[in-house]
Amino acid sequence: MHATLLGILGLALLGALHAQDSVPVQSDFQQDKLVGKWYSIGLASNSNWFKEKKHLMKMCTTVISATVDGNLEVTSTYPKGDQCEKRNSLYTKTEQPGRFSYTSPRWGSKHDIRVVETNYEEYALVATQISKSTGSSTMVLLYSRTKELSPERLERFTQFSREQGLTDEEILILPRTGESSQRER
């Protein structure tokens, strides 16, 4: 019985690791081209905080800059009520270009961040696997250099999010700041 349980747990862990490794990273990733200002156009997640806050979320701006040691400083500005809240994160580079790690000082969660695809001038699709003591979750972000993206890019975001196991209820096209309507996919 004990060996069977260990075997099942081992297979489950192997499956989770395989799923995580199956998330692609942009080939020939060029970090210097990713820096600059981006808008968060889409957000998809199966985390509890997303489910609880989804109806309040709006488009935010994110500025990505390179540090001297090759990591990424990511500063996001979110509308929160009638104010703006800034959040700074340091994405540490890994051996694989386009893949970064981050540990939340507030929650202790570990983030495996992958730039899945980008053309650097228009959009970037980023997938994050988040692990913490209470379990793991998946997050997909769609960034744009402008506040609007083509329907094809929005559809690619939705399709990729579904490929990561996210449902339509867990996929959100973020309304612009000041817009009251929510456009969901």
TrEMBL record:
Record EC number: 5.3.99.2
Leader peptide range in chain numbering: 1-19
Gene Ontology CC: one annotated term: Golgi apparatus
Domain of life: Eukaryota
Subcellular location: Cytoplasm, Perinuclear region; Golgi apparatus; Nucleus membrane; Rough endoplasmic reticulum
Coiled coil region boundaries: none
Pfam families for the chain: Lipocalin
Domain Lipocalin/cytosolic fatty-acid binding positions: 35-177
Family in the record: Belongs to the calycin superfamily. Lipocalin family.
Official protein name in the record: Prostaglandin-H2 D-isomerase
Annotated source species: Oceanites oceanicus
